[in-house]
């Protein structure tokens, strides 16, 4: 491993202002992948990112067509055949911003306040895209080389379930050869404690559409004899999960790997102030699957949530109709070893079974993603832990995240690569919600962690990653 | 009773084109009372109507302030103290038009097609407003007088539960003295058979608001431990009504007057082709309260329907959040002798009881209206029946409407007046739904029915209405 690198540290200190301006420029692009009207913004973000990668000194920067929002690729492969090759992943697309009236600032007009960068994507995941670019830039600017071979993939469809990524990975298997993958789309543990994520949940996201009468009907003239699609939808949604928090879809739990005693001890050992957490999100009571702790429920057990529902009249005042149709977006978080496609089929079968006569019910697939569990004792994981400890001054915790990064499983299954989840988001970043923000210390120190990580990997014995 | 009036008939034949133009002009005003932004349109409609009443020869035409959308008043009181005095009611406000994309024509650009007037309000209730104006105009133009004393009240808040009407009626009791009231806001029976409505349902319209976490939460990071407001709302809505169609709110049925054997025989005698009716609304199965027929369920039994529901993300694609809040508009149709305020209290108590910990639940009152039952054998009802038979060539059926016209109960309770529900809308008018229309034969013949009705009332023995 190289000695502490004062030249690079000085470079990073000197370029802070320019780096933050670039980060803000990047947030200004409303690259909301889930809303078709923002497709041009996604493409613009991809173009800007490719330019930044080139400027940083990386090579072969390219906006790659996928059939959807593009992937941005770049590499630097001059560390020699003995040096590790790492595939780096983050995503440049962001979540929608509604309800926009709940933001205390304009989501695409970034600003720095109280040591945080504000804006949609400031944390998830534009911060980590920028951190990787800046870490490489600093190394190349001060040393003229990187200690490892790096291939970068920045995706534009992570927030809309990565529809085209698997196909693109398959088609580019050759050029993506690597020893392992680093995915930077996770964060620190509550209390902003440095952490490495070792588990991610998968997802099965559906839309349930209920169609009733041809048109909205007068609820006075027809009410009492016609099946109300909104009422039917509520009943079906309610039937999906019991009051004990257990999902009632037959077969749902069949493939779930039960938590071992050791798993449960590890969860119990994590520092967690439930009262402070409840206070932060503004609720005075919790609920969940019987027999599991808060942390287990949120990361190691599958769930089912309504993400959106709509039917009939939603404006001000009363309107007396039986809605012609009703819709709900419902997603399940999955854990190892549930198969999303099997869960989708189980939901479809159950919904068909409980759909009442008098309405037509359809279950649309809005996206599937595999769950993932990664090994703590892999040398790439342990090198990441050393880089974190060297830069943040504290050894990382190991925990499971409740969210889904389907590409993790894609890298594992499609490319056959081990995955290290190295992420720096502060836990109170309000990802996906109004008032998203990123703690700038995580951003700045994280850039140094990434650079240190490449040095740590280069210092491993030759072949250590090829076990 | 006066002899058949050829002069008036000729006048009506000669003025048809002008009358239809006025009717179309009136539909062009988007007087949607339930949407605050349309308040100026309601006021404009009121002003136009007052002008038309004056032009028709009626007196004291006035746009009266109510605290909400105005009431339009006019009268003609020169038939003498022995002649009956009739209070006439219809409403100039209309329902919202969404989902506007389901209309096959622009809702506020009326047109005549296949013997129908097309447009929002073409039937409910601008047709009947215009019919009363034109009937009075024809009599005054050809005879210089009306056979009875008439007072007109045209309301602008019927479609948003008549919030200010009761107060206005109370404040104007003196000037509204009459023998009975005619309300024109109902229609013919299925098959477009002439009918007089003898029962109306009341209403209790609420909005259930469920508040959870302060902001939308990432469903991956929080899902499994946080109470989802949308899921909670679905469960509460589902708990309101059982699969047997019975409303589960304790006390809900306490005051319902049971149907007598005679009532049920009358319902059974009504012509009704259920298969054709199902085909018309586009459903292949029905449901409702066990033990009652279709017609009973829709008019003589109370109901509960979701009129609208919304929470979380409702745009295209997936968004992975736990919504911070969820809302449903829920209305109950009530029958004699249910009291809307008592039902509201019962719903509030039940919702409070079933609301889960972890969310805050509120039940807003969006409007209450009393149910009504009117006597078939009242001389004013029987005179209406003779007028219908003389003009439409067929004696009317007597039936109960499932909808609510709260003013009916207001006239009964506030002004102490018997009420005759004389309405002409074709049953397939799609009131409250996209593609509303009015059969022009009902409109034209109905104008003649109204004129004939005034003659029939004038022919009653003096004092016949003051039983």
Can you give a write-up of this model?
The structure is a homodimer of 467-residue chains. Chain A has 14 helices and 18 strands. In chain A, strand 1 (59-64) and strand 2 (71-76) form a beta hairpin. In chain A, helix 1 (6-14) packs across helix 4, helix 4 (126-143) crosses helix 14 (440-458) and helix 12 packs across helix 14 (440-458). The first copy, chain A, is globular. The first copy, chain A, is an alpha+beta fold and 467 residues long. The first copy, chain A, starts with 5 loop residues before the first helix and ends in a 9-residue tail after the last helix. Chain A has helices at 6-14, 16-28, 39-55, 126-143, 165-171, 219-222, 229-240, 261-269, 274-281, 294-299, 340-354, 379-392, 406-413, 440-458, and strands at residues 59-64, 71-76, 85-91, 111-113, 116-118, 149-155, 180-183, 195-200, 202-211, 217-218, 303-312, 321-322, 325-334, 360-369, 372-373, 397-400, 419-421, 437-439. The model of chain A has no long low-confidence stretch (mean pLDDT 94). A 6-stranded mixed β-sheet of chain A has the order 1-2-6-3-7-17, sandwiched between helices. The longest helix of chain A is centred in the C-terminal third of the chain and has 19 residues, at 440-458. At the A-B interface, strand 10, helix 6, helix 7, helix 10 and strand 11 of A face strand 10, helix 6, helix 7, helix 10 and strand 11 of B.
């Amino acid at each position: 491993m190289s000695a502490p690198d004062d030249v690079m540290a000085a470079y990073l200190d000197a370029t802070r202002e320019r780096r933050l301006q670039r980060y803000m420029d990047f947030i200004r692009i409303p690259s909301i992948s889930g809303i078709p009207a923002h497709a041009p913004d996604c493409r613009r973000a991809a173009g800007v990112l490719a330019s930044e990668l080139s400027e940083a000194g990386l090579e072969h920067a390219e906006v790659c067509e996928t059939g959807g929002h593009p992937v941005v690729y770049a590499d630097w492969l001059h560390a020699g055949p003995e040096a590790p090759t790492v595939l780096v992943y983050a995503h440049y697309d962001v979540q929608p911003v509604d309800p926009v009236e709940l933001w205390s600032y304009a989501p695409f007009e970034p600003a720095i306040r109280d040591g945080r960068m504000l804006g949609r994507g400031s944390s998830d995941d534009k911060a980590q895209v920028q951190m990787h670019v800046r870490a490489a830039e600093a190394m190349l600017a001060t040393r003229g080389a990187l200690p490892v071979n790096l291939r970068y993939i920045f995706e534009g469809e992570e927030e809309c379930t990565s529809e085209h990524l698997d196909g693109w990975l398959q088609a580019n298997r050759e050029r993506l050869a690597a020893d392992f993958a680093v995915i930077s789309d996770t964060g620190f543990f509550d209390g902003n404690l440095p952490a490495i994520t070792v588990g991610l949940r998968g997802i099965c996201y559906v839309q349930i559409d209920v169609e009733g009468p041809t048109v909205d009907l007068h609820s006075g003239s027809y009410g009492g004899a016609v099946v109300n699609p909104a009422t039917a939808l509520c009943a079906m949604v309610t039937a999906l999960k019991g009051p004990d928090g257990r999902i009632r879809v037959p077969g749902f739990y069949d493939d779930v790997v039960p938590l071992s005693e050791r798993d449960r001890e590890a969860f119990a050992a994590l520092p967690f102030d439930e009262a402070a957490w409840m206070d932060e999100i503004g609720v005075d009571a919790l609920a969940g699957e019987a027999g599991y702790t808060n942390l287990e429920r949120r990361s190691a057990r599958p769930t089912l949530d309504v993400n959106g529902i709509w039917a009939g009249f939603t404006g001000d005042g009363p309107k007396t109709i039986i809605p012609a149709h009703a819709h709900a977006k419902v997603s399940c978080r999955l854990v190892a070893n549930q198969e999303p496609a099997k869960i989708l089929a189980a939901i479809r079968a159950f919904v068909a079974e409980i759909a009442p006569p008098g309405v037509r019910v359809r279950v649309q697939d809005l996206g599937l993603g595999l769950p993932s569990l990664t090994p703590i004792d892999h040398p790439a994981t342990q090198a990441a832990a050393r880089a974190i400890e060297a830069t943040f001054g504290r050894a990382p915790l190991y925990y499971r995240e409740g969210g889904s990064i389907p590409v993790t499983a894609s890298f594992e299954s499609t490319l056959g690569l081990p995955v290290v989840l190295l992420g720096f988001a502060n836990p109170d970043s309000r990802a996906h919600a109004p008032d998203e923000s990123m703690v700038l210390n995580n951003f700045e120190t994280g850039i140094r962690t990434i650079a240190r990580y490449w040095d740590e990997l280069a210092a491993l014995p030759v072949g250590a990653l090829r076990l």
